[in-house]
Structure formats: C-alpha cells, structure tokens
Automatic annotation (TrEMBL), chain A:
It is found in: Cell membrane. The lineage of its organism: Bacteria, Bacillati, Bacillota, Bacilli, Lactobacillales. PANTHER family: L-CYSTINE TRANSPORT SYSTEM PERMEASE PROTEIN TCYL, MEMBRANE COMPONENT OF AMINO ACID ABC TRANSPORTER. Its main location: membrane. It is a multi-pass membrane protein. Pfam families: BPD_transp_1. The keyword Transmembrane applies. Coiled coil: none annotated. Residues 16-203 form the ABC transmembrane type-1 domain. Gene3D superfamilies: MetI-like (1.10.3720.10). Keywords: Amino-acid transport, Cell membrane, Membrane, Transmembrane, Transmembrane helix, Transport. Belongs to the binding-protein-dependent transport system permease family. InterPro entries: AA_ABC_transptr_permease_3TM, ArtM/GltK/GlnP/TcyL/YhdX-like, MetI-like, MetI-like_sf. This is Amino acid ABC transporter permease. It comes from Secundilactobacillus hailunensis.
TrEMBL record, chain B:
The lineage of its organism: Bacteria, Bacillati, Bacillota, Bacilli, Lactobacillales. InterPro entries: AAA+_ATPase, ABC_SmlMolc_Importer, ABC_transporter-like_ATP-bd, ABC_transporter-like_CS, P-loop_NTPase. One of its GO terms (molecular function) is ATP binding. It comes from the Bacteria. The keyword Ribosomal protein does not apply. Residues 2-212 form the ABC transporter domain. This is Amino acid ABC transporter ATP-binding protein. Keywords: ATP-binding, Nucleotide-binding, Transport. It comes from Secundilactobacillus hailunensis.
Length: 214, 212
C-alpha cells in the first residue's frame, strides 16, 4: 500500500498545489476588494450603492458552479476567452469578494459613529481614520465570519474540477478511476482536512491577536 | 477669544439655536447649562465643527473662523465626549500619540515625551500599555482629556463630563478642569449639573429650548 501511496502522491500533491494557489490568490484579492466594495455598499453615492448591491445579490444568489461554467464555457460565446486557471480565479474572486463585502459591510456598520467623530476632532484624515481606527476594529468583528468563508473557500476550490483544472479532487478522482481503489479519494480527504486544519490554526491565532483589546 | 454671533441651527425643521450669541474668553472656563434638549450639545458640536451652522458667524481672536472647515493646527478645538470615544484598538499611549504624530507631524519620541508629561499630570502613570477597556470610568475620562490636550487645543470642550461618572468622581473632574485653568487652558463645559457648573465657571451661559 505504501508503494502505491508513494506512486500517486506526486500527482495528488501537484493537484493540492493548484488548490492552494486558487485558495491563496482568491483570498489575497477578495479580502481587500471586499473591503472596498463594502465601503461602496455604504457610500453616499446612490448609483454606486445600487450597482454594488446588484453585484452582491447576483453573486450570492447564484451557485459558484454556475459562475465558473459561465466564465469558462459561456463567455467565449461572446468572444471573452479565459484560460482554465484564469477563469477559475476570476470566478472565485468575483464570488468571494461579494461575500466578503457583505461581511465587511456588517462590520463597518457596527462601528460607533462616535469613533469617526472622535477621529475627526483630532484632525485625522478619512484615510487615517479608516486605517488606524476603523479597519482594525472591523477586522476584529469580522474575523470569525471571514474564518468560516476561508474554510469554505478551501472546499469550494474543488469546484474547478468542472472546468477541467487539475486540482486535488481531480487528481484523486483520476487515480481512483484508473486503479479502481478508494485509497486516492481517502488521501484527498486527508489532504483537505490538513489544509483546513492549518487554516483553522492560523485563524485562531489571528483571533487571539485581536483578543488583546475589546 | 472665540465669539459666536447670531448662530442658527435647525434639525429636521426644528430650530435648536436661534440667533445665539456667546463669547468664550481666553484662559477662562465657560459653562453652558440648560435643560435636556435645549441644544447644549448641539452648540458644542457646532463650536467643534462636528455640525455646520445654518447661519451666523464665528470669530477667533478677531478673525473669521469656520470650525467645520478648520484645518489650522494652531486653532484646534479639542473635545472630550460624554462617552469618551477612546479608540479601543489602541493602548493608552497610542490613543494619545496617534494624532500628534499623524496630524502635528511630531516624531514618535517627541509625541511620547509630551504624552508622558500629560499622563503624569493627570495621574495615569503606569497605565500607558493598557487598553481602554482595562481602565475605570474616571481613568477613561482622564485619558480622553489627555488625548485632547496632546493636540495643544486652543479651546478644550467637554460634553457632560460628570454624567458618566460616579458622584464621588465629580470632585476629581472639578479639580482637573480648575487645574487646567491655572495652566491657561481655555475650556467650555456643557453640563446639566448646576452645582458643578457654578463651582467651576468663570462665565455661565444658559441655553433655553426654543418654543415652536
């Protein structure tokens, strides 16, 4: 069995690397974009608010699987062609930005307006107020929800299978079909569990960091 | 001297301040008293620039002054809020030094040196590394005062400084305000507590509700 595991492990790890890349870049892009979109969702500029509300409604109201298929198989019909990996990242970032925007919107709205006034009488600029006062408080509020979405993202990344991207699930499925054994899928499960365990550990550390104040 | 002339302020069609005149003399304590809903806090918010006035004018040392668009760091109007509004994510020292560093462009060392003086003066020594939630009500208020003083305000305003405190801490607040007067800090204190107002005031201004 060990010999078989050592035979299929490279392809599984290569698939896991793809999963990690999608996870990492989606997270890196969609958190700051989510913050920006959440500011737009609470903006005084009504058209911007309407557009962003529609975007969030669309992204959260339709399956990520459909969005992936739409980007990779649908958009080429109108001449917009993405490579598999780019299509996956594009769809994931669009989808997760919407979720993070909603989470951050809730965070921003729970900040006491007095904090902005307090910063204003101290002459802090809007940017300084956001960076030094508001965003750290918002992050503390949203960390648990962001954590849930982060764990979901690891698991959702397996959806790229549908556009033929060689991720962890695909690597396992190919090995199972070829060798007629369940072991590759069990290994896939273990690798996903390891990845979510690492993410959970990191998120717990982040929560602990923000527990210093309340 | 800060002078308010014919200040008018309305909220949702209701007149809060109507042709309101007031003078705030340098190095004195001006207390603003009046019943709840009379517009004391609104007046303070107009003076500190948190609310725009509908009409009227301000002059500071004889020159026109617009608190709502005041970017002159020599004319800061400091505010100690009723609920303090300390920054919970920053330590005591960082609450005090943040604005002097970012706004007054003081170096970290200079800002901390000045902060330490004020911390010692207002009896917060040893609390520098604590977060606001670790302070008592009285300590929070003293921190709010120190934070405002660190910006070298031209005038320091207090909104109901005794309302969030136990009665026995009122004397401490009185002592702090009178102590700052000795250091030539011009102060405006909004309060509904007449006894407190009389104890500290050089000038007492009454704000009455405006009948519709």
């Amino acid at each position: 069995m060990l010999h078989y595991v050592s035979q299929i492990l490279p392809s599984l790890l290569s698939g896991a690397w793809m999963t990690i890349k999608i996870f990492f870049w989606t997270l890196i892009a969609s958190i700051p974009l989510g913050i920006l979109a959440s500011l737009g969702l609470t903006s005084k500029i009504a058209p911007l608010r309407w557009i962003l509300k529609f975007y969030v409604w669309l992204m959260r109201g339709t399956p990520l699987l459909l969005q992936l298929i739409f980007v990779f198989y649908g958009l080429p019909i109108i001449g917009i062609i993405f490579q598999r990996y780019d299509a996956a990242l594009f769809a994931f970032i669009l989808n997760y930005t919407a979720y993070f925007a909603e989470i951050f919107r809730g965070g921003f709205q729970s900040i006491d307006p007095g904090q902005y006034e307090s910063a204003r009488v101290l002459r802090l600029t809007r940017g300084q107020t956001l960076r030094k006062i508001v965003i750290p408080q918002v992050i503390k509020i949203v960390v648990p929800s962001i954590g849930n979405e982060t764990i979901n993202l690891i698991k959702d990344s397996s959806l790229v299978y549908v556009i033929g991207l060689g991720d962890l699930l695909r690597a396992g499925n190919v090995a199972t079909a070829r060798d007629v054994t369940l072991l590759p899928l069990v290994l896939v499960g273990i690798i996903y569990l390891l990845m979510t365990a690492v993410a959970t550990y990191v998120l717990r550390k982040v929560e602990q960091h923000y527990r210093a104040w309340r | 001297m800060l002078e308010l002339k014919k200040i008018k302020k309305q909220f949702n069609g209701r007149t809060i301040l109507d042709n309101f005149d007031m003078q705030v003399k340098d190095n004195q304590i001006t207390t603003i008293v009046g019943p709840s809903g009379a517009g004391k806090t609104t007046l303070l918010r107009c003076i500190s620039g948190l609310e725009k006035i509908d009409s009227g004018s301000f002059t500071l040392d004889g020159k026109p002054f617009d608190p709502a668009n005041n970017r002159d760091n020599d004319n800061v109007i400091g505010v100690v809020f009723q609920d303090f509004q300390l920054f919970p994510n920053l330590t005591v020292l960082d609450n005090i030094t943040l604005a002097p560093q970012l706004v007054l462009k003081q170096s970290k060392t200079d800002a901390e040196k000045r902060a330490q003086k004020l911390i010692d003066q207002l009896n917060l020594t040893g609390k520098e590394g604590l977060y606001p939630y670790q302070l008592s009500g009285g300590q929070k208020q003293r921190l709010a005062i120190v934070r405002a003083l660190a910006m070298n305000p031209k005038i320091l305003c207090y909104d109901e400084p005794t309302s969030a405190l136990d009665p026995d801490l009122r004397q401490t607040v009185e002592d702090i305000i009178l102590g700052l007067k000795k250091q030539n800090v011009t102060q405006i204190v909004v309060t509904h507590d007449m006894e407190f107002a009389k104890n500290i005031a050089d000038q007492l201004v009454r704000v009455e509700p405006i009948k519709a």
